[in-house]
Specification:
The complex is a heterodimer of chains A (290) and B (171). Chain A is an alpha+beta fold. Helices cover 33% and strands 27% of the residues of chain A. Chain A has a 15-stranded mixed sheet that branches. Chain A is flat, with a radius of gyration of 23 Å. Chain B has one domain: Orthogonal Bundle (Rna Polymerase Sigma Factor, Chain: A). In chain B, helix 1 crosses helix 2, helix 3 packs across helix 4 and helix 7 crosses helix 9. The termini of chain B are far apart. The relative contact order of chain B is 0.13. Classes of the chains: A alpha+beta (290), B mainly alpha (171). At the A-B interface, helix 1, helix 2, strand 13 and helix 9 of A face helix 2, helix 3, helix 5, helix 6 and helix 7 of B.
Chain lengths: 290, 171
């Protein structure tokens, strides 16, 4: 007869019921999320780049928060300090990552227990190996929250921005629901807090233009549907959340046409954006396109 | 990380040392996830975990005793769950799908709901043991309780779980 030893500390004869429950509940176990949106080889290369970059910084031994520019190598970057770049600059972020600022960039390291920056204008390439949400860059109207990744940010003089993710994912927190951007996708941002429809970085210009027009409120859903390829199905899936109920059937028709099969869930549930049905549909989209 | 070293890591984290926070995050994450599963919704558990750590980091200066970091962190998770924390974005599901974890079966869903329906004193512990695979001594260290009391709670929790899942108690 089994004893409580196995339940308590795993010693003693295994309890078949406990073993069965352990196996059964495995899908609910917490684990670091894998990010497989990139082709595996490219993802591994990105990880290797991050690790090698981190080692380089560690061995080089800069201060935890420091900046390297043409005129200053290893200057400490104090909280509250603005960095205005004339040429490219690289900053160490607490030995957890680094950012590369383009010329004519204005960015502040904010006073925060985690890594928080305010990018007023210019361009950044950000690489970070840290727990999700450890690094945030505030741009006009939107917070770009790192979920463990590499990404680029550009903010124009008028406050509009572009966020493009190379590896991992980020969360855009503006007005309304956050938008998740995954590796290989990008989205526009506006100073009033709007975030644009995520699109693939390799999307054709015609789709980029259609998405831009849609984001600005002057485009038609039909144009997006016409320009989307099978590879852009994730964009159309996200479009479902941004159109009226009446238009969702149209988007679903196009999605199913691109994927070559109907979603294995009730159409009405998809039109109502039922979370479980949407997840099932997304699984089909991801399975065929990423 | 041992329970005796936790206060040191907490103190380091308070100074803004990100590696210390990372260690604490790694050490407590499975247990926090168990509390999130037991007290919040299954679908938003991952988000609740992240929110818990973010709140804890923001409020680290309010922690009165560094030795009590674990129970304090779990209470943050419980409070967030009780205040109706919801998945903050419908797009979260994209991340979940991309994780490619095995899909729970209908029996697994029944099992986790049975754990969640247990009295509070048992649901978190059973989640830590059966879902996260933590041992009784590990749970005792994380929750700042004695191994003996954890053994008793696991025994009673398992007995209740068997009854509720319609399994004959062989013990």
């Amino acid at each position: 007869m089994p004893t409580d030893d196995y339940l308590f500390d795993g010693s003693g004869p295994p309890d078949p019921e406990v073993e069965h429950l352990e196996a059964l509940l495995e899908p609910y176990r917490s684990r670091p999320r894998q990010r497989l949106a990139l082709p595996m080889g490219l993802a591994m290369a990105a990880v290797a780049l991050l690790i090698l970059g981190g080692l380089w910084w560690t061995q080089r031994g800069p201060a935890p928060w420091s900046v390297q520019t043409a005129s200053c190598d290893g200057c400490v970057w104090e909280a509250g300090d603005w960095l205005d770049t004339e040429r490219e600059a690289t900053a160490q972020i607490a030995r957890r990552g680094w950012l590369e600022a383009s010329p004519d960039t204005r960015i502040r390291r904010d006073d925060s227990p985690v890594a928080h920056f305010t990018l007023e204008r210019g361009g950044l390439d950000v690489f970070v190996v840290a727990p999700p949400r450890w690094l945030t860059v505030s741009i006009p109207g939107v917070d770009v929250v790192d979920l463990g990744c590499a990404y680029s940010l550009t903010v124009a003089e008028d406050g509009t921005g572009i966020v493009a993710v190379s590896a991992g994912s980020v969360r855009l927190e503006g007005k309304g629901d956050p938008t998740y951007l995954h590796a290989g996708t990008m989205a526009a941002t506006w100073p009033e807090g709007r975030t644009g429809l995520p699109i693939r970085r390799d999307a054709p210009d015609t789709l980029v233009q259609a998405a831009d027009a849609f984001d600005r409120g002057s485009g038609e859903v039909e144009a997006l549907l016409a320009e989307a390829r099978t590879a852009d199905a994730v964009t159309l899936w996200q479009l479902l959340f941004r159109v009226s109920m009446g238009q969702r059937a149209q988007v679903l028709d196009r999605l199913e046409e691109l994927l070559g099969e109907a979603f294995p869930v009730d159409r009405g549930r998809l039109i109502r954006l039922d979370p479980e049905a949407m997840e099932t549909a997304l699984a089909r989209v991801v399975g065929q396109t990423l | 990380m041992t329970s005796s070293s936790i206060p040191r890591w907490v103190a380091l984290a308070r100074t803004g040392d990100p590696s210390a926070w990372t260690r604490l995050h790694e050490h407590f994450r499975p247990a926090v996830h168990s509390v999130a599963l037991a007290r919040g919704s299954v679908e938003s558990a991952e988000d609740l975990v992240q929110e818990s750590f973010t709140r804890a980091l923001e409020r680290l200066d309010e922690l009165r005793s560094d030795e009590a970091f674990g129970p304090w962190l779990f209470q943050i998770t419980r409070n967030l769950a009780a205040s109706g924390h919801r998945r903050r974005s419908r797009f979260t599901v994209l991340t979940d799908v991309l994780s490619f974890r095995p899909r729970p079966t209908a029996e697994a869903k029944q099992a986790i709901e049975a754990i969640r329906a247990l009295p509070d004193a048992y649901s978190e512990l059973m989640a830590m043991r059966l879902i996260e695979g933590l041992t009784g001594p590990e749970i005792a260290a994380l929750t700042d309780r004695s191994p003996g009391s954890i053994r008793v709670s696991l025994h009673r929790g398992m007995k209740l779980l068997r009854e509720r899942m319609g399994v004959h108690d062989a013990h």
